[in-house]
């Protein structure tokens, strides 16, 4: 077993929040006091270091939206947050400075001749527009979140950690709940192809620096465990495909071992391979996905039979119109927001093939785009891809 230690996962001390937190330069000094304390005491026990987990998510929800503790932005800060001199870039600048200083200190204090491996856990979604008028919003979102922070610290990285959960469909000021897409309990669109695309995209940008990748988070909230099993297999196949294309991936961490507390949703969504019964002395019960994941880890293979069985189980539930919990608030326009629900609504399983290599992307859904497709559809031909399912074939995903 390897130890990966994260130094900052959104837990800003209240006293730091009172003076402005990561908007202020002095937070770098206070953070480095903490880093030195941790490194001096446990560096010989740590295999991988993550300095910051999802820094831009923390900055957006704390200093731009005011949804997380320690933010409380005023109207001017909110209105100007995305500008070059706004709080978004301001806070990320000081976090980048802190990352560089922490990186240097960890390498300076390495013990027992072991070379430390230091990186970042960077949240990435596959983002696409719902309609024609959402294209600009997607461009702005990608410009702000995809590469700027990694660019600012790329000379101080031993790996780039990717946190990937799925796709986000932007519609106006929110995220669209697409009726015929499958979602996790916490409103993340299930889309394994997106992880493949992200790895290829990031590899193209940083391959000259020879920085490897590590999937630091990938998982799905699913109390029924019916989505989780194919989710695991299809995302591992997406990673394997990226490796075949030349992307260096050091490893994969599934989120997560047991049901946990979520920043936006509390204990509602169930992410665990192991269920936690909070009404019965926190009793642990492994879900079926626990044994499936253990098999893949032990053998280093995904069998075609396991892939088919996991998918057929989910499709059977969809055919039977079964439902599962959904914890995301949705407005009358079908848009989701950051706020979670204390009590979930029930959402049906969706009859859509989202397996890796099978998902067919829809076009823009605004009236004008639909009209254009209607006009040209009689003269266009849609090429169908046929897949051969062979129960005797296995995918080897071991190094």
UniProtKB/TrEMBL annotation:
The active site of this protein is located at 217 (nucleophile)
Q: Which GO terms describe its biological process?
A: carbohydrate metabolic process
> Could you tell me one molecular function GO term of this UniProt entry?
beta-glucosidase activity
Q: Name one Pfam family in it.
A: Glyco_hydro_1
Q: What is this protein called?
A: Beta-glucosidase-like SFR2, chloroplastic
- Family assignment? Belongs to the glycosyl hydrolase 1 family.
- Give the source's domain of life in one word: Eukaryota
Tell me which UniProt keywords the record has, alphabetically. Glycosidase, Hydrolase
InterPro entries cross-referenced by the UniProt entry: GH (IPR017853), Glyco_hydro_1 (IPR001360), Glyco_hydro_1_AS (IPR018120)
């Amino acid at each position: 077993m390897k130890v990966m230690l994260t130094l900052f996962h959104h837990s800003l001390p209240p006293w730091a929040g009172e003076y402005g937190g990561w908007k202020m330069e002095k937070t770098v000094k206070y953070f480095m006091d903490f880093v030195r304390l941790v490194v001096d005491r446990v560096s010989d026990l740590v295999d991988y270091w993550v300095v910051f987990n999802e820094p831009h998510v923390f900055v957006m929800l704390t200093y731009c939206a005011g949804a997380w503790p320690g933010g409380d932005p005023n109207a001017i800060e909110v209105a100007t947050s995305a500008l070059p001199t706004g709080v978004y870039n301001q806070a990320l600048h000081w976090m980048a400075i802190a990352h560089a200083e922490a990186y240097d200190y960890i390498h300076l204090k390495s013990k027992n001749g072991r070379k430390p491996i230091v990186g970042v856990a960077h949240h990435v979604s596959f983002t696409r527009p719902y309609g024609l008028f959402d294209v600009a919003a997607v461009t702005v979102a990608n410009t702000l979140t995809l590469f700027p922070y990694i660019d600012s610290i790329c000379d101080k990285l031993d790996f780039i950690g990717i946190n990937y959960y799925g796709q986000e469909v932007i519609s106006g000021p929110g995220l669209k709940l697409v009726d015929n897409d499958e979602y996790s309990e916490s409103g993340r669109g299930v889309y394994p192809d997106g992880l493949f695309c992200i790895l290829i995209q990031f590899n193209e940008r940083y391959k000259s620096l020879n920085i490897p990748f590590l999937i630091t988070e990938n998982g799905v909230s699913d109390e029924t465990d019916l989505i989780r099993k194919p989710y695991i297999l299809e995302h591992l196949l997406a990673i394997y495909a990226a490796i075949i294309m030349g992307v260096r991936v050091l490893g994969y961490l599934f989120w997560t071992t047991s049901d946990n507390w979520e920043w936006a949703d509390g204990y509602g969504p169930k992410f665990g391979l192991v269920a936690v019964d909070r009404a019965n002395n926190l009793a642990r019960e492994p879900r079926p996905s626990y044994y499936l994941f253990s098999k893949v880890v032990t053998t280093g293979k995904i069998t075609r039979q396991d892939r088919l069985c996991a998918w057929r189980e989910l499709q059977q539930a969809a055919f039977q119109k079964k439902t599962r919990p959904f914890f995301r608030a949705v407005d009358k326009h079908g848009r989701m927001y950051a706020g979670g629900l204390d009590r979930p609504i029930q959402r049906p399983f969706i009859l859509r093939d989202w397996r890796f290599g099978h998902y067919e992307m829809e076009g823009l859904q605004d009236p004008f785009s639909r009209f254009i497709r209607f006009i040209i559809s009689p003269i266009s031909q849609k090429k169908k891809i046929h897949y051969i399912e062979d129960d005797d074939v296995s995918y080897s995903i071991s190094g």
